[in-house]
Structure prediction request, 384 residues.
Amino acid sequence: MDFEFSAEQRMLRDSIRSAYSRDIMPIQRAYPQDRPLPKAAFLKIQQAVAPLGFYGARVPLELGGSGLDHVSWGMFYEEFPPVLSTGLLACEATTTRLARGSSAVVRERFLPGLLDGRLIGASGTSEPNVGSDPRGVETRAVPAGDGHYAISGRKLWTSNGSICDVLMAVVRLESPGGASSLARVAVERAASPFEAREVAVIGLQQGHLSEVVFDNCVVPAENLLGSGDDAAQVLQATWLAQRPAFGLMGVHLCRAALDASVRYAKERVQFGKTIAHFQLVQGLVAEMYTLTLASRLLAYQALALLDRGIVCHAEASAAKMMGTESAVKVTRLAMQLHGSMGLTVEAGLERLHRDACMLPLPEGTTQIQQLIIGRELLGVRAFR
Ligand SMILES: Cc1cc2nc3c(=O)[nH]c(=O)nc-3n(C[C@H](O)[C@H](O)[C@H](O)COP(=O)(O)OP(=O)(O)OC[C@H]3O[C@@H](n4cnc5c(N)ncnc54)[C@H](O)[C@@H]3O)c2cc1C
Prediction:
């Protein structure tokens, strides 16, 4: 077992850190923290990230992939704040999914722009009536003649939905015979316009969590991706790595909350000494530290398993559950350690906590991760 990053990975981590402080943070800070970033600002951020190979990490080399291993790819999520990395992941996941099984025409149209950060991608499965059970997708695609399909329906909680150039929608594909299957379709917004609006939420507020409406949105048949009913398989395959990535987003928030708490405990004086002297305060810090460390190790372990070609559903789900639930808890404990100061907007801990509360939902809720772990250990599916 080796718990250290390789020299190459450490170099990449340094590059990620300097790209963030030199190129990305100034853009992020130029805009209000409580409103979605303008599309132009998000594009500039994408273009600072793309040269590091981020978007091509899970794309085959022959299609323009960057050959990054999963552990290296995970470092982006540990280093960047989730308010950005949720949007970056949505784009990267869309790139990965578009590379799988799509026609050469589709790949040539979208992949170069997605890989170099010129295009913004989004993936929409969730709908008003469809959350944890994606098999219930109601958005329909029907043949519209002349080699086209028409899409009608509503997607909800689509990361990047309002600013994307291409949206991979999971749809119910209806064939002339009346049979239906789940399919993936690439919707190019400029050619096949659709309405999208931001949904106001408590956290990740510079991000773009959107509702998307397709009203007879006509797309060419060549934009159908994969082999008809491979939508569920492609989602499952990509979620496997994305779950530890969400765990590492949690670790980013845990680390920020822990660092702030250690600083504050050494400064704040009560009863004639810094609160760092009190055993119960040390207990808070020890709990925060242990949750952070455990979350980090679980996430990188799952990614290292994927690098060895091991399909690790239980480990990936444990990493997601541990990292995201720990972020909720650790940010809350940090607020407690700061006393009333922890409740102020100025201290910034409440923002960390609100961001943390967003993470246990995507890519399967905490309860769904528990059911996956249960299925893997017990051999019984308890989903329904
Ligand atoms: C930050 C963020 C980004 C997101 N990005 C995207 C995106 O890009 N694309 C996209 O398609 N969606 C996205 N989503 C949506 C997300 O995937 C869904 O919110 C999630 O799948 C849960 O669906 P739901 O909210 O409808 O909850 P529901 O499925 O309605 O669940 C409600 C509650 O019931 C529980 N529950 C459901 N089924 C079971 C069961 N069988 N056993 C036990 N408990 C159960 C859940 O755990 C939850 O507590 C995003 C959400 C967030 C918060």
Notes: The domain at 232-378 is CATH 1.20.140.10 (Butyryl-CoA Dehydrogenase, subunit A; domain 3).
